[in-house]
Amino acid sequence: MSEALRHLGNTVNPANFTINGRAYKYPDIQRTFMWQLFIPNLSSVVASGPENLLVRCRSISIPQRSNEAITSNFMGTRQFFPGKADPGGGTVSISFEETEDMVIQNLMYEWQQKIFNTNPDSLVTAGKSQRPLKRMYVADMFLIMYSYSGIPLRKRIKFHNAWVQQVSEVSLSYDSGEAVKYEVTFQYDYWTLELDNTAV
Fold first, then answer.
1. Is 145 helix (H, G, I), strand (E, B) or coil?
2. Is residue 119 part of a domain?
3. I need a labelling partner for 42 at 20 to 30 A (CA). Which of 4, 32, 94, 186 fits?
């Protein structure tokens, strides 16, 4: 047996790989269905909206992050160096389940109208933005993960300067017994993983 393998055998006890060993030594797994989307201060963007929006959406994805590779060639050899960061592609798609008070549809419609008003009956703002400055129609969104016992985890994802880019069509049918769902794409500048001050 080589010295490296002998050293590995001394430091890694096979007993640590048992189910009981894992259960006692490692935290519980994080579950894909324990999360909520939180949009604070939404009333500053959509006047008729709630002050804060905390909803359990049907689905969302944690965006990717990547760094570009810079290739350097020299005398037949090649090296890669880290380059610019890609903060996640700039969009996130979220599926909302609608209720009969039509809160989601109304919020998204009014948000888009603030960005560009398509209502010809508006006397002042028809055909232009109701909020001319970007900071007036964007909002930070937070993806909050929870433990299985319902306690917020220590870190949350913050989407900076998000706004509604697209609300996809919704198919209605007499043959279907499904709930009305809205697929909404938000554009954002970048996202960060930050400490959740509300977590215990």
1. strand
2. no
3. 32
Give the separation between CA 27 and CA 13, rounded to whole angstroms: 19
- Does some domain include residue 131? no
8 A C-beta contact, residue 197 and residue 168: no
Best-predicted range by mean pLDDT (6-15, 21-30, 55-64, 162-171): 162-171
**Quick one: tokens of 89?**
């592609």
How many domains does the chain divide into?
A: 1
Where b means 16+ CB within 10 Å and e means fewer, 32-42 reads: eebbbbbbeeb
**54-81 tens-digit pLDDT:** 776 888 888 888 889 999 998 889 999 9
Burial class (CB in 10 A: 0-12, 13-18, 19+), 77: exposed
